[in-house]
Amino acid sequence: MNRSVWRYLVLGGSVLLFVLIWWTVAALVNNPLAVAGPQSTWSEFVRLFSDPAVRSQLASGVQTTLGSIFLGFGLSVVVGVPVGILMGRYLVVDLFLDPWVNSWYSVPAIAFVPLTMNWTGVTWVSAMLTAFLVAVFSIIINVYTGVKNCSRSLVESALSYGATQSQVMYKVILPASLPSTMTGLRLGISRAVEGVIIAEMVFTVIGLGGMIDASADKLQLALSYSLILVLAVICIALSQGMKLVSGRVVAWKESQALTRS
What we know:
Blueprint: H1 3-29, H2 38-50, H3 52-89, H4 91-105, H5 112-120, H6 124-148, H7 152-160, H8 165-203, H9 207-217, H10 221-249, H11 251-254
Helix pairs in contact: 2-3, 2-10, 3-4, 3-6, 3-8, 3-9, 4-6, 5-6, 6-8, 7-8, 8-9, 8-10, 9-10
């Protein structure tokens, strides 16, 4: 059987199994205020796109959420990649920043929300800043790891052939650290989504996260589940997009991956 066909068959089977378990649990609980079933969730999901008023609200929420995600992630890349490179390349920068980076990386995403609210109020800017603060440290750590673990023999070989420090950086260290950097970016986009949704759920007045929290607060669980499905589609699309970019940027690394049976 074709490998791609087999992959989609397995994926479809896992989805069907999940829906079956979900339907069984909902039937056993038999309380729509506790667990909404697949049927009612699907009805609400269809209504999100068929009802003009609801569709307009959803479009506005998704636009706000995506804007915060992309801006927060973009800012984290602009800051995180250079900082990670400097930490990996220069010992003094590593010693100075390492405890701070690891400390802030360990802080839960929700802890950043009160800070950003105090800075910019209950706005999309607060969600964007939360995304930045949550994502940037993942990117820094992965870029730092990639640069730091660059093979010494590669660097010494380049220097022995007369390469300058800048040539070593751009032609040896950065290409060698690309796989780790791309891993950091893939983690960063996921963390950015997490930061934005958490912030919006705390605000409860903006974005897709706010819509999810508001519907759950009103015990409209089918609507809440359908909004979570929309969020899941967005997350899958962003993750697959980053995976495709990573596959093109470090195609040589992907080609060396282990073939699984």
